[in-house]
Amino acid sequence: MFTIFRLAHIVFVALRYRLDELVLSGIKHPVAYALLRIVRFGRPPKMARGLRLRLALETLGPIYVKFGQVLSTRRDLIPLDVAIELAMLQDRVPPFPSDVAAASIEAALGASPHTLFKHFETDPVASASIAQVHFAVLHDGRDVAVKVLRPGMRDIIEKDLALLRVLAGLVERMAADGRRLKPRQVVAEFDNYLHDELDLIREASNCSQLRRNFSVESGREELLMVPEVVWEYCATTVFTMERMYGIPVSHIDRLRAAGIDTKELGRKGVEIFFTQVFADGFFHADMHPGNIYVSDEPATLGRYIALDFGIVGSLSEFDKNYLAQNFLAFFQRDYHRVAQLHIESGWVPPTTREEELEGAVRAVCEPYFDRPLSEISLGQVLLRLFQTSRRFNVEIQPQLVLLQKTLLNIEGIGRELDPNLDLWQTAKPYLEKWMHERVGLKGLRTQLEKEAAQWSQILPQIPRLVYANLNRTDTGPALNLELQRLRRAQEQTNRLLVALSAIAAVALGVAVWALTRQ
């Protein structure tokens, strides 16, 4: 019942903001023009199309706001005016009342924010789809940012997810590509990540892990800055962290005015992404411009700052190895190896002909190489690959959906910073180095060092275990005798069954003969 009401609400919002007109205006067909004249009733909408779409997404709730956030980074796929308007969803979602935020903090931490903090700003500095942020000062003088969860979010998200599950089930049953795309599994993954965002303790843990991965000890502190978690002021609905100072990555003019090399920044962004994915298998999966800043402090000028850790992705060793080999094969234009990897991984049926899949992948990718990023749309490449995958029944892997989304975000940010950035050439040296360290002598040494602690406990026991095994009573003859007895018993049983079958057959024959004689 809730799903029906929610669907009705979505239709109502779409009609209220004239999204039907927005869709029809983008279709170049006589039938679409005729329908457009009907829905307009002779008058065009009063509000701009981008504004109408943004307001509709804000009205529908957090899932739709996140969809708009992703769209805002794809200016190669949507009109510029729509992208600019949707960019406001990244940190300008209407806030909820400050007294409600204060009450949430008091309920979670046991005291009023004006008691817990030396100073607490009642007006939020940023408001997003899941939570909003207030600046504060601790009693020891440290500047912090306090993130407070929006009230009632769980019920709203549950209704939307219920609708998505119904739609995913319909797609899986009715669409030709439904089973291959695994829509229900994709919705289940999305469900997990959204519920993770509703637990700010989990987000604080993600933040702490990412900070450790880019700490001074890791040797990567020059790439990414991550705020420190203030655990004493954290709960499931409140997350307090170190306040970070910087410029939003989308404010290109401010970055250049601060003396920051935007081209170098674009290159570092690609390096950060591949470092998180392949070195750690743990990556920030919500990297839209509203969550990425650049430090303008003299000591850390030009370093990236990561914020909002509600959605992170994890990859297994198999996934990392498979993806790295695929990327390298693409970079080297080894389309035969790409086809082999898809077949070996089980993503396509084993009966698929390698040369056919190789030719299809080559036809998609070859036209895009040797071009600057400004002329390459990864979205278009993925779209063509998707169309090609139908022919070969490629199964979409739900665990990689977040990685695909994050890669699209990286492309959007890179395009803003440096239109001529070559994504392929920037990533290729890093991946080649990573594969060399993984499969070469250095990789062997690393694995031996990782297993050394376990082997240090096992190795001393090996002589004792070998001696005990050699001195163990030989049970071979006894086992052979037992097997022979079982074989003789089985043969006797078989002979008895044959005799009984013969007697039954004779009795049946006699009965039939007697009946026919009467």
Automatic annotation (TrEMBL):
PROSITE patterns: PROTEIN_KINASE_DOM (PS50011). GO terms for biological process: ubiquinone biosynthetic process. Keywords: ATP-binding, Cell inner membrane, Cell membrane, Kinase, Membrane, Nucleotide-binding, Transferase, Transmembrane, Transmembrane helix, Ubiquinone, Ubiquinone biosynthesis. CDD domains: UbiB (cd13972). Residues 119-459 form the Protein kinase domain. The keyword Transmembrane applies. The keyword Transmembrane helix applies. The chain crosses the membrane at residues 496-515. GO terms for molecular function: ATP binding; protein kinase activity. Pathway: Cofactor biosynthesis; ubiquinone biosynthesis [regulation]. Belongs to the protein kinase superfamily. ADCK protein kinase family. This is Ubiquinone biosynthesis regulatory protein kinase UbiB. It comes from Pollutimonas thiosulfatoxidans.
